[in-house]
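re: that chain from earlier
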Amino acid sequence: MDLAASVKRGTGAGLRVLWELGKVIVPAMVAINVLEQSGWLTRLSDWLGPLMGIFGLPGEAALALVSANVASIYAGLGVVVALGLSAKETTIVAAMMMINHAAISETALVAKAGARAGWVLAARTAAMVVVALLLNWLLP
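^ sequence. v structure.
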């Protein structure tokens, strides 16, 4: 295969991935900005702050977790980017999203495969909590 064909195919594939990610990340960032401008982000943060504070995160970080579970992990990443979290906070929330993203849909799939969905969801959630607590404790 020649170089020109490889570059053309790679560029096309890269642009398709960029388009797919952009369709999710850009709306998530816009939604966060709308919530912030309307004052709802502050209200949500105040309400969820105590819970997220256990993990060393601001209350707004809960939106990233919800987005990663309801939409996709890419939507959650879009929220993380829009929030402008510190490196430590980004690491913690990213780890939480990696462990427990798409929990709703994946738990339904696990149940169809014959596993006990409640136990799988509980294990994933427990793992997410333990990892987040450890990262909050260990990271400077």
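The chain has one domain: 3-138.
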